[in-house]
Structures are given as C-alpha cells and as structure tokens.
Amino acid sequence: MHRLVVIVALAALLTGCAQERACTDIGAFAGVGVTLQPPLAAGVSRAELEVCWDGRCRRPVLELFPAQAAGQQTCTGSECSAKSTPTGGKYGMAEVPGLPKRRVQVTLALFDEASTKLLDRTVEITPEGLFPNGPECGELGPQGKLVVDGVGNITS
User: Fold this and answer.
1) Which ranges of the chain would DSSP assign to H, the alpha helix?
2) Boundaries of domain holding 122
3) Could you tell me how many helices (H) and strands (E) the chain has, helices first?
4) How many structural domains comprise the chain?
5) Cis omega before residue 39 (within 30°)?
6) Does residue 25 belong to any structural domain of this protein?
7) What would the pLDDT profile of 6-58 be if each residue is shown by its tens digit?
8) Can you say whether residue 25 is alpha, beta or left, with left for phi > 0 and alpha for psi between -120 and 50 degrees?
9) Does the residue 148 lie in any domain?
10) pLDDT-based confidence at 60, cuts 50/70/90?
11) Which residue of 28, 51, 59, 67 is most buried, as measured by CB atoms within 10 A?
C-alpha cells in the first residue's frame, strides 16, 4: 500500500497535478509599440500612428517617452544596484483594440518641434499574442512593434 501512495504522488508530481500554477492579474493590451533610436529620436517631439486591416484604419494615440537603460552595476558585499540612465532614444505604446494576429499595415509619421514631418513610412507587421504568465494562463495582446534606427530605417 505504501508503494502505491508513493507511485501516485510521484505520478501527480510529474504530470503537474501536485503543483498548481498561479496566474496573476498582469495584463497586456492589444497594440503597437514604437522604439526610436538616437540620433533621430533627439529631434522627434511627436509621433502619429495609423494601423489598417480589413479595409479600415485606426489612429491610436502614441505618446513618446525618453528611453532608459540600466547603467553600470555596482556591488557592495552581496547587494548590487544599477542606476537608470537615458539612452537618447524614445519609446511609446499605442493601444489598438481588435488588433488581429495577422499582417496589418502600419504608417508611422514623426514630427519635430515645429511640426515638420521628419519621417512618414508605411510597413507591414504581424502582431503576436503574449503570454505574460506563461501559456497555461492564457494568451493576451496581440502586440506588434516597430523599431526606427537613428537614420529612419524601420524594422519590426
């Protein structure tokens, strides 16, 4: 009898029944993220985004923020820290309700302080679903991304 209990417990552990994974309330909305790299980012004060599929277009709000990265790490004993430092880039995330997980057309326009258009490009991207808690907790999103290098080339 003792062997049977051990075998059942081992089988439950191996199949994941002994541990139940908790899914948090972390969220991920459907949308398109934009990253602007230096030196182009320095001259950009405003961005506009248009996302189109199935013959309809949406113009979500895209607010840009200064990009930060972890600086040099310092350690004292067993404690380590790093200060956040500006990268010279900018980033933003636009919420696009109903964004599908298939190719969509995205137009990105960048403007300077005088509202002069610095860039106006259209690319196609394929948004993907996100699993912030792992696949067993369900899919959220989907999200797509655009990365604009320092001279205006766009990759997704």
Assistant:
1) 2-15
2) 31-155
3) 1, 10
4) 1
5) yes
6) no
7) 444 444 444 444 456 688 877 789 999 999 999 999 999 999 999 999 999 99
8) alpha
9) yes
10) very high
11) 51
